[in-house]
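Ticket #4471: structure output looks truncated?

Reporter: J.K.
Steps to reproduce: submitted the chain below (353 residues) through the standard prediction queue, then opened the result file.
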Amino acid sequence: MKSVRACLLSVAGLELTLFEKQVLKKANPLGVTLFKRNIQSLKQVKALTQSIKEVIGRENVLIATDQEGGRVCRFESNETSFLAQRAIGSMAPDQAAEAAKLQAYLMSDLLLKAGVNVNFAPCLDVLTPETAPVLKSRCFSDNEQTVADLGEIFIKTYLQKGILPCMKHLPGHGRTTADPHLRLPVMTANTQALQKDFYPFRKLADLCPMGMTAHIVVSAVDETAPATQSAKVIRKIIREDIGFHGFLVSDALEMKALSGRLGEKTQKALSAGCDAVCYCLGEEAGLAEMAAETPFLTDEAAQRFLSMCSVFKRTPVETPQGALAAYQKLVALAPVMSDDYDAVEVLHQLKKV
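Returned output as attached by the reporter:
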């Protein structure tokens, strides 16, 4: 296999520009992450994903997105709305388990039709009273066992459908009050208290083939470097304590929690122990910088990559008959979750120099 560059890139619009085609072909990245700006219709996005795969030219090109439910839904269904993770976690246990399974089935079907094979979900962050608005609706619960149980349902169902899940945000983001899109959050709890945060990730470490790091300082382990760029956090907490040995990818590099040029951020993350990084703004300058300065996967990372891609060779299980109607009934029973996070304004702030 041709050497694969250790990054997931992004593109600007509804179809590839000539510049984007040239960069993707030359760079041979892991793949591309899609956002709302890339999605107009099912026909259009299928053409886009097919074009990306053809330009990069590998069988195992990753086409990723963030399809959690609630506010974080890149793909919308014409038939139903998808519940936020917090709404699911607030239901009675039996109803929550059924809603999780049915939602994972229905979202997987939608992603597969669009040509998407990776979902950056579920969030396994444990809710706390101080959890920042960016995450509140995206946490299943303040109970770590509930988070693990519902996360397991989503992960198993995605795998059964041939979708590669990615649990996030390692080693746990729930105690932070700042939004990493805008500034660097610092978590001051000691390692004993943090065992609650680590618990869902530890329980599912052997099940989920892919994980995403958090741009947070875990001061009990490393007082200065965010987890994404901290060899101490990745080695001691993520790899050893939590026991996750799957493919580790960074959260979006353009977040202002990280400082420096994209190339510098990339080198720090990979040197610390991330297998790959994500660039999500889709701007030409960033795309060119990532293609020029991101190295290829290490031998160890390449083995993890090939191992997790075995998910794509599975024959997807059929979604149960009547799944949509059953899910819609559960949606009607779910609590209404308020979410006042202004994602549009945050994106505007991100693009400011």
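Triage note (M.O.): checked the attachment and the full token line is present. The radius of gyration is 19 Å.
Status: closed, working as intended.
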